[in-house]
Fold each of these.
Amino acid sequence: MVQYAWLVPLLPLVAYVFLLFLGRKAPEGIVAGVSVVLTAISFVISLFVFQAVGSHPNGNDTYVFHWLTVGSRNFDVGFQVTHLNALMLVIVTLVSALVLLFSKGYMHRDERFPVFYQYLNLFVFSMLALVLSPNLLQLYIFWEMVGLCSYLLVGFWYFKPEAALAAKKSFIVTRIGDTGMFAGIILLFLASGSFDYSTIFSAATAGTLSFHGMSSGTVATVAALLIFMGAVGKSAQFPLHIWLPDAMEGPTPVSALIHAATMVAAGVYLVARAYPLFVSAPAALHTVAWIGGITALLASLIALTQRDIKRVIAYSTVSQLGYMMMALGVGAYAYGVFHLMTHAFFKALLFLAAGSVIHALDTQDLFEMGGLRRKMPLTTYTFLAGALALAGIVPFAGFWSKDDILGATLASGHPVLYAFGLLAAFCTAFYIFRVFFLAFTGQPRDEAKYEHAHEGGWVMAVPLVILAAFATLAGFFNTPLNHHGLERYLFADYAAPHSAAGTDVVATIGQTYPENIGLMAVSVAVGLFGILVAALFYWRPGKGAERAARMFSLPYQVSFHKFFVDEAYEWFFVGGGKRLAALVRWFDVYVLDGLVQLLGRLGSVGGRLLRFSQTGQIQTYSAWATVGLLVFVAIAVFRIGGVFG
Amino acid sequence: MAPANFPIPTGSLLALGVLLFCIGLYGALTKRNLIIVLVSIELMLNAANINLVTFSRLGVAPSLSGQVFSLFTITVAAAEIAVGLALLIAVFRLRRTSEVQDLNVHKW
């Protein structure tokens, strides 16, 4: 079965090409139907692959074909099915199929409906191909392709200036990370002679990376940090997190699929995929942990005060991705991937539910919502399931994964990061229930919009229900109840005897953290406390929230303005760029251009002066000609020695 | 009267040429009347002719070709001066002047 894994990305590609030929006027039913069915078949194949890989302990099945030869180097393309990849295939195809179905309702009567599906199918193909890549070069190609699809889809409503700007921003900001990542890939290639994961990992763990006399550990650290830059950009981690909230200008299904469940998780996937490299570079791993922890806390603090429902969830995504990075950074490999999985489900759910609300109300402002519980019960309860999962309330999916991460962070000796995570968990519970109470309970704040509200039909309901089921139950893939099934599944990638990874890696990945009932209780209590505070402020319509905002005016403003990160970048990079440009312009205008101008002036002024020698008197000219002749003759006679040489 | 076989020295002949040329040049550059300028140019031509005749008797194989050549030059010069005079008359008809200084259309 594993050898057919290439079918998984192929089917969305087929759908894409088919839709291309179908054109822009194709009927919505056929467009959506083909996409959903093909992706659903991909999902089924993924399940079989997932199953098939699980049966053998070392599932590193690699199928490569010779692509090209440059000098003495051979480059391969192909696909590789590891346990991690198989899991990613299942997650991506499942969420994609559901989002494609949901879009049928959400994008109904959009005049570029078929184009939207083309882009989505292209994205699904690229994402799946990214996951299956057996080497870094191929990964990089698809990495950029998902970035391109993200750009196209964020800017799908390009006639809105904000959407066009957001698309540009998301592309440029991720490119910053990608540049570092590309440098990292090239460095690894130069140091190990190959793009293949297995070659690079064995060189890194054996300490045989060499580049211009740098020690293997240094090379590994630099390369890992550079590659992590790419992950920081793609997964919207702290210094480069600014693009993701703006990317919410895209249609909501795009936010659910690309900016919550799959593409932004690619950064986490990349770190997980390159885990042996990161383990051989402890400094890089530390950086990952700290960036993750800071991002988790910072983004959750920002999410507390945002007014736009999608932006709250977007910051929540940033924050949860931070958790995943933190988990990977402290060595809890399986928990990071586990959280990636549960997060994909409950965050896609939250986005789709938010999409359902936006579709019904035609607004994204939380303070124009309210009381939707009565009009949209299904959306309400599915959103509630997602919110509980996000808040980490037992037994929803997010509880298991987040609690694992927090426990592992403390157990691995990072109390500060644990505190970050716990504080972020409180904020998470607060902001998501703030959204819940504002949107679904209480009285409608905008009667006209409320009257218009309705559920979106079965195409929107089915994905919500399925995702709600996963958001509720997905946590049970990895609990003490099933002896940590997912952990064991993922560990099989590194199990003896065929593993290329060294003993350090195996030890790190194989490390298990015993369940700590006390910590679990603390997490749940923190989550419940967050919900309680949110309920106090927002459940009943009142002025509590505004009073609180006024009371904590300074922190409120700081959070509302997203810690002024955008402004700081604006001032430092954009402003700095402008100042530098002004300086360069000054130099150009007054120094370089001045020189050129001087030469030009010299010509024109000189010409104006020399003009007066043009007397029109033929005899004057002849006189000058005679003088000239005499001078030449004189030179010939006195310097050369004769007129004839 | 000098004996027939006593040749005039080459230097004297060349000096005569130079003298004639300089007079012609001086006239061509300074005289205001176009006719005088033309005459001066003829003087310079004649200086050249004297040189041709003078040098014709020198060389490895002295011959008359220099003198013949100067005959050609005189002929061509005659034709040329006819053209010059025609131009002069045309200019005079047009501008009512034969002063060189007045013909300064190409002044700045």
Amino acid sequence: MNCLEFRKQFGADPACQDQPLLAHRQACAACARFADRVQDFDRKLVLALRVPLLADQGGSYQVPADTGLGQGRAWIGLAASLVLGLGVGLLTWWSAPHRDIAQDLLVHMHHAGISLVSTDQRVSNQQLATVLRQSRMTMSQGIAGVSYARSCMFRGRLVPHLVVQGEKGPVTVMILPDLEVDGPTSFSEQGFFGTILPAATGSIAIIAGEESDIEAVSEPIIQSLRWDI
Amino acid sequence: MKQENTEESRRSRFENIARTHEGDLFRFAFWLCRDHSIAQDLVQETLLRAWRSFDSLRDESAARYWLITILRRENARMYERKRHPTQDIDDLTPAEQGLLANTPDTDLADLRAAISKLEPDYREPLILQVLLGFSTAEIAGLMEIKQGAVLTRLYRARKMLMKSFEE
């Protein structure tokens, strides 16, 4: 890859984790500076595009009480329920005590049964980057041993759910933007060990069958993860 | 009773999805049409249409892509129906100017103005990528253009913005 190709590709997709792109960035100081400049600019772009939601914006949409089709716009008048008032409930739900969070994490983990499977299967860095990007995060480098990466609904939010194959078994990692914790919180329930670590504007929950796997898995993730917002 | 529970569950699942994506939908709609009222109408129409076809959503983790697809179609329909005049950044109402400049950071306000001046063909993929986190393949699918064209537009959009912003 030459410098022109690098700049075109990186300028179009700064979160791209293609190996030739990463290799060129490491080898070429000028292109590395260009990449830093583009990524700095992208952080400003994110802030600029997130125009504030007006006071009458949140929770103003309504689901029709009637499910019948073909009634034209008249059924809009039947609209009832939905979001108004639920915002408060959601906030309460989202900010519930840590013990509840741990229980919810375990429920979600069991529900997505893949979290409990030891496998040689791995997801590509590209796939991982796509999942993270859906929650506006990027990685500065790939994370080894990821066997599952998907955006999941957790407490009404779309969050990255990863499974990393640890030394002693699968380790579940849930990255929780906006769910802030005061400090690291550990728990042990249903035969699993877990920890919830504060990170940027949210937290990272890591759950494993063996306590020793938690630190080994969490370190590279914390090092690599970039919260763009 | 069972039917009521099913309906309740369906409603609850939809409400959850609407609540999760409402902000993103509004912001996307706003940057598409650069008009606060039209953006609100667009989101309302999108969610009503989504509710009516909710059964067609097989994978709820793909809800955002699905909703954005509906919003884009609804925008095209509204545009055809009403032929909204293109809004010039210098002619924005105080409310819209407030939305764009609602920050003490003048750099951010300038950048918002620059984004607003981008041609829609360049602005839209940039919003889909930077604001909503879609991959270039997903953007190509949404915009029904080739991935190469998406990459070109994204590159040019950034180049134009960086040039105008850094000058």
